[in-house]
Amino acid sequence: MEDCIFCKIIRGEIPAFKVYEDEAVFAFADINPISQGHTLVIPKRHAENLWEIPEKDLCSVLSAAKRIAGAMKKALNPAGIACLQLNGRGVNQVVMHYHLHLMPRLEGTPELPVTTWELKPGDMDEIKKTAEKISAALP
Q1: Which residues in the chain show pLDDT less than 70?
Q2: Could you tell me the CATH number of the domain that includes residue 82?
């Protein structure tokens, strides 16, 4: 896509700190990191979100993410790694090109904001109805 910032990064029109690249995937350091080592993993072929990305490209992104997470473990020895992927403006997706965030949390650093929330018991009847509704909509 012509005006997509991530497509411009892939084409080399905008600089990035490349972490990984293969024929289907490009990964680079996030310039607004939540944590040290925060990396974005994206498909080279433009797809806006999880609904649009071809399954083959999604598998390539996840396979690369696993390799990168292994490298993060070796290089940074994190206490854990959060994986975050947003779909649509309604959940604050800002760049409309599918991307998976890999955010390592190093020992002794603050908790990652995306990994902490208050657990509240849900309404079991509503949970069941919603699960059945989603299940019935599967192809």
Answers
A1: none
A2: 3.30.428.10
